[in-house]
Amino acid sequence: MISVLPGTVAVYADLACPWAHVAVQRLWRIRAELDLAEAVRFDHRAVLLEVVNRGTLPKPIIDAEIPVAAEMEPDAGWRPWAEPDWRWPVSRLLAAEAVQAAKEQGLAASEALDRALRRAFFADSACITMRHVVLDVAGSVPEVDAGALGEALDAGRARTATLAHVADFAPGGATTSPHLFTPDGGSWPNPGVDYHWAGPPGDSAVALKSDDPSIYRQILTRAAEPAQG
Predict the structure, then answer these.
(1) Which of 212, 144, 222, 210 is nearest to 180 (CA)?
(2) Kind of pairing, strands 41-46 and 8-13?
(3) What is the pLDDT of residues 92-148, one digit of tens each?
């Protein structure tokens, strides 16, 4: 059972997952449309696929998923990887740890840093494996004190909490990226999205079978009810 605080949406997501980038964009956009910015926060929790799968996300899979995801939410920020392949971020552990460390400054700081890191990767081809890149991104986020974040990272204060999320990635818990949870027990794997690969992942095309962004209105409304009631 995933525990979720009132007034929050627990967001399990890998920072390099295109479907998660879509989900985060929709959470921010629809929260604003519903005027729930003061009522609902996003509690980001790391889906560390590199730990679960004992390897990085293969670049061919991400490259195939991006065009489909970009059509779903074009304003999220997308661009094909523009750097040499050797600069591809093979690990997101430090970046995910930074998102957790930012919670020392509040969920508003953490959710803003998470969104900025996703945009840095998908839109700017930033190698978010690197410490200096993560801190440069943090420095661009008004809600984040990058100096305090760097201190927290160097002290390792968020490493245990970040790795603890791996235990949640199991049957009965988080099962995919993204997977959202609401305080009333709601569980939403890749909300509203159904897709399939035409052949072997990474060697074929991705086909979107269905997409219903309206599900996010239900998710956010249900998350807000405990905070408002």
Answers:
(1) 222
(2) parallel
(3) 999 999 999 999 999 999 999 999 999 999 999 999 999 999 999 999 999 999 999
